Amino acid sequence: MFNLNEYKIILIPILASLICQLIKIILIILKQKKINLKQAMWAVGMPSSHSAFFTSLLITIGIVEGINSAVFAVALLFSLAYVYDMILVFNVINDNIKELKNQLGHSSLEVIVGIIIGIIIALILN
């Protein structure tokens, strides 16, 4: 029989990412007063769905496997590398090419909000 609990390490990060995308769509509609699906499906913007994905994955692995496990250590390293890269990419672009700012990377605030959403979703669903 299918047991959702067995798949939560996969399902929770996907759900956290989808929730961020839904929040992103709502914020776009509120700001622009119209639906812009291309912009809503784009990977950038507030909040960072990738940050929520990696953070909820990390938290869920920590809860399921334990924070002393090797898989948690690997997830932590990947999460930190992702966050560092996204903020670095955004800052390099922000400093050099203003036009690409809205197409690549995330601001620190977008990443932090994504991380917070990832933590909340992982803790609620675990």
Q: What's the total number of strands? A: 0
Mean pLDDT: 81
- How many distinct domains? 1
End-to-end distance, in Å? 20 Å
| Poorly predicted residue ranges | none
For the largest beta-sheet, the strand count, sense and barrel status come to: none
Tally the helices. 5
Task: Tell the overall outline.
Answer: flat
What is the chain-wise order of helices and strands? HHHHH
Question: Whole-number radius of gyration?
Answer: 16 Å
Approximately how much beta-strand content do the residues carry? under 5%
Q: In percent, how helical is the residue content?
A: over 70%
Structural class comes to: mainly alpha
Oligomer: single chain
Structure commentary:
- There is one protein chain.
- This protein has 126 residues and is mostly helical.
- The protein has one domain.
- The protein is 73% helix and 0% strand.
- The chain has helices at 8-32, 37-41, 49-65, 70-96, 108-125.
- Helix 1 crosses helix 5 and helix 3 (49-65) packs parallel to helix 5 (108-125).
- The longest helix is centred in the middle third of the chain and has 27 residues, at 70-96.
- The radius of gyration is 16 Å and the shape is flat.
- The mean pLDDT is 81.
